[in-house]
User: What shape does this take?
Amino acid sequence: MAPLRRLLLCLCLPLLLPAPAAPAPTPVPAPHTDWAACRSLSRELSRLVATLKEPHPVLEEVHLSEEDPKNWPPRIRCSDACDPSTLDTNNTRCLQRILQGLQHYRDLLGSDIFTTRRLPRLETALDQLLGHVQQEHGHTPRHPMSPSKKWAHPLLQRLALQRLQSFTTVMSRVFTHSASPR
Assistant: This one.
């Protein structure tokens, strides 16, 4: 019985051993982000958002907030690794979050909320910055905005622009740090 057991072990042993290592793939150059261009475009975007005038002065005193955090737009969080020490070593996660946020606000500016108040300069600046970031990190899936009530458009515009201003402030800091010479 021992020879039969040995024979079975010899036949089964190759099935238990790990497969030989595949040849290493040819290294693909890491994407290169034009940080200086992104810094310049993000500053321009921040400047444009800051100079927008509220067409409904009564809304200037209104602070809007959304109750449901699941519906909040993308925002840069601590967990996105956008802090200076992490950006110097691995910026992929941070840039993906920025790309997600830029795409969200671009979709929002193209939605029915802004049909009566188009902001072409803001849309152009967003498109240019999106182009630079997408070039290196691909496209994010687009999420069509659901239609909203016409009476709510001024309120939703105000909320969207406040959040965009907040987002661009943090994003501009990220690009400013990464574009600085070391």
In short: The mean pLDDT is 75.
